Amino acid sequence: MTNIKLDSRTVDEIKGLGRQKLIEYSKLNDVIGGQIFNILELENKVLYYPIEDEEVWGFSEKVKGKSFVWINTAIAYDKQVFAAAHELYHLWFENDGEIILKANMEEISAFNISENELKANRFAAEFLINEELLLQEVRTYGVDKNRIGIKDIMKLSNLFVVPYKTMVKRLYEIKLINKKRYNKLMALSNEQVDMWRNRLGLSLPTRENKIGLDNLVDKAMELYERKKITREKLEYLLDLAGLTMEDMGIKGEEPYIPPTDEELDIIMEEE
Hints:
By secondary structure, this protein is an alpha+beta fold. It has helices at about 10-25, 35-45, 75-95, 100-105, 115-130, 130-140, 150-160, 165-175, 180-185, 190-200, 215-225, 230-240, 260-270; strands at about 45-50, 55-65, 65-70, 100, 210-215. It has 13 helices and five strands. α2 (about 35-45) runs parallel beside α3, α8 (about 165-175) runs antiparallel to α9 and α11 (about 215-225) packs antiparallel against α12 (about 230-240). The protein is elongated.
């Protein structure tokens, strides 16, 4: 397969799409970060569920005209953020579904990734790391544009809540680092990235292994409160979301206490 790269015209089109959406959501001057999930939920039904397979970051599907997205919450939070933004491109501009694979997200092999996946990755970068905002933060934190190092990139990736390699690629895209520096910085393994994050005392929001099934819990509670479903059915639905009755403030069933002789007499008299 030919090594595919996006041409300058395509890149400009994607930049325009990213800016258009940032303006549409009034986020042009905001760090998106975790807000990406709110945006995703406005557009689609979103399921959050962990599976212990880091090769799959999620998937999207269209069923009877409705969009559904699943995000693997077993992967790191910053990767979930990027996967969500990547998925929005497909749903907004391609109107299709697909499996989100680690190999495509990190562009591990430029010979096996499709042009559509490259477009989605570039859109995610443009949407999550707006160029003007990135340059502003570089100035704010006093980063020397001529000597950008690992520490600077770690701090910037943490600020924008994106994977380290996404930030390296973004800095290369806007010409703040050259190809030689890019290759050297991209050579870090995931283990080395984690070590640097620990060394610098940086942490990501905790969201690993979250289970969320859109508004299933709220709807189930409403039905239970209206006595439309049984306690057993509610327990089953809550279990799907990793919750218990106690989590929802519902106490155990009251034990059955037979009426006293006096109470029985009153009941009989009422007849």
